[in-house]
């Protein structure tokens, strides 16, 4: 079980104040705060070995070794076969554009690709641009506007011998829904399609095992799981070795070097090691009961998975309280799974609108909460396909409240009571 006092003491930002009161970070789906371990790793990188890689002097040798360690750490985080399957980049979006350019040449006019209405734009635009350039047919799997889950019958019918590629979100950064990617990847592999999974939103809220999933690519960003701004892609080794890529001629033509051309953010990679170390520490000290050690996984993977499961157990309590509280507020409509029995199919990211005779502008809610030190996002949060499908784009999108493992029940209650206060005032004024 998590000891929240101990956890919170690890995050310096949680002790800062907003005017004279506390800060309540519920903007976590957009980016989490960072623990001391991450700050230490980044400071060490910038002070003790601030050099580019592959030189013959001490700081550069250290930089080269730390980059290797970062690849190894993320290989264990994803349970990849080796560090050669890990590519670092500035963020998920840039990595995805790179991969879209690299994959484009494999497809011919008329080939079919699949995506969903549940994507973040970062897993949508790159593939649609690729499809337009190559003359590919794009099929989009809808989600049900009442259950907020993908229509698997439509998906199953769309997968045929003509399907060459699919880009799928593991968890929606707006609805919170976790998609049945195991099933989807299995079906897609049966027809030989390449699979590209966006795990950016899912990564802080559950264990990832790319070998068990069988996907070809999976991408996440460390700043969502307590690290710095740093994108990290898993790619099947054969594909990373053989796909065409634009690189400088002196860069070795081996993975991952061929993808990581130019000087990388080594402080970002160091911070990512720190994020994995933080998760290991949580797994070791508070996640013993969540260990699933079948002897197959590396110890670091087991520890990280135990930490994430321990975090999820706490996050489910927060999400249940948040959803139940919001549903008591007149006019609030939660856009996502609300039944606690189905919480294993959602992350704790909760979006809502205030409907009825006097609809509320989500931006006004966010500004009101900010006046009280509670930070939440409003709008589409780049989940443009989702908000379009819900018909909410022209209405200003949603208010998104995103707890994570360091949030407390008291913070959730405060947020709900502020939403209630705002809505009551708004109705009286209307
Ligand atoms: C589901 C999802 N995909 C992709 C992204 C884009 O990630 P990045 O900022 O690393 O490009 C985000 C960021 O919020 C996200 O939540």
UniProtKB/TrEMBL annotation:
Residues 24-414 form the Aminotransferase class V domain. NCBIfam families: am_tr_V_VC1184. This is Unannotated protein. The lineage of its organism: unclassified sequences, metagenomes, ecological metagenomes.
């Amino acid at each position: 079980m998590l000891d929240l006092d101990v956890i919170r003491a690890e995050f310096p930002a949680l002790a800062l104040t907003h005017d004279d009161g506390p800060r309540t970070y519920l903007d976590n789906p957009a980016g989490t705060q960072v623990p001391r371990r991450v700050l230490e790793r980044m400071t060490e990188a910038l002070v003790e070995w601030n050099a580019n890689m592959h030189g013959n002097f001490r700081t550069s040798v250290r930089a080269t070794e730390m980059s290797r360690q970062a690849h190894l750490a993320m290989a264990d985080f994803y349970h990849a076969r080796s560090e050669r399957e890990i590519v670092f980049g500035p963020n998920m979006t840039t990595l995805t554009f790179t991969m879209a350019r690299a994959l484009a040449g494999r497809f011919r006019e008329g080939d079919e690709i699949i995506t969903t209405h549940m994507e973040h734009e970062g897993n949508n635009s790159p593939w649609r641009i690729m499809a337009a350039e190559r003359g590919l047919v794009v099929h989009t799997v809808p989600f049900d506007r009442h259950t907020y889950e993908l229509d698997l019958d439509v998906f199953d019918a769309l997968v045929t011998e003509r399907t060459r590629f699919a880009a799928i979100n593991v968890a929606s950064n707006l609805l919170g829904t976790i998609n049945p990617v195991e099933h989807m990847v299995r079906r897609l592999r049966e027809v030989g399609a390449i699979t590209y999974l966006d795990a950016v939103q899912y990564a802080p809220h559950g264990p990832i095992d790319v070998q068990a999933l069988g996907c070809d690519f999976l991408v996440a960003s460390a700043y969502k799981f307590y690290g710095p701004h740093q994108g990290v892609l898993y790619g099947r080794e054969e594909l990373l070795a053989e796909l065409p890529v634009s690189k400088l001629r002196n860069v070795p033509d081996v993975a991952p070097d061929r993808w990581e051309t130019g000087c990388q953010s080594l402080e970002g990679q160091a911070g990512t090691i720190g994020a994995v170390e933080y998760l290991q520490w949580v797994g070791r000290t508070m996640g013993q009961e969540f260990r699933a050690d079948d002897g197959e996984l590396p110890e670091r993977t087991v520890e990280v998975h135990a930490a994430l499961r321990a975090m999820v157990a706490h996050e489910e309590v927060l999400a249940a309280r948040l959803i139940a509280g919001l549903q008591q507020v007149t006019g609030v409509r939660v856009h996502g799974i609300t039944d606690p029995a189905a919480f294993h199919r959602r992350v704790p990211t909760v979006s809502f609108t205030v409907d009825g005779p006097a609809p509320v502008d989500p931006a006004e809610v966010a500004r009101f909460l900010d006046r009280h030190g509670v930070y939440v996002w409003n709008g589409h949060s780049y989940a443009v396909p989702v908000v379009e499908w819900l018909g909410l784009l022209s209405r200003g999108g949603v208010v998104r409240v995103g707890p994570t493992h360091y949030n407390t029940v008291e913070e959730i209650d405060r947020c709900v009571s502020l939403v209630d206060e705002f809505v009551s005032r708004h109705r009286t004024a209307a």
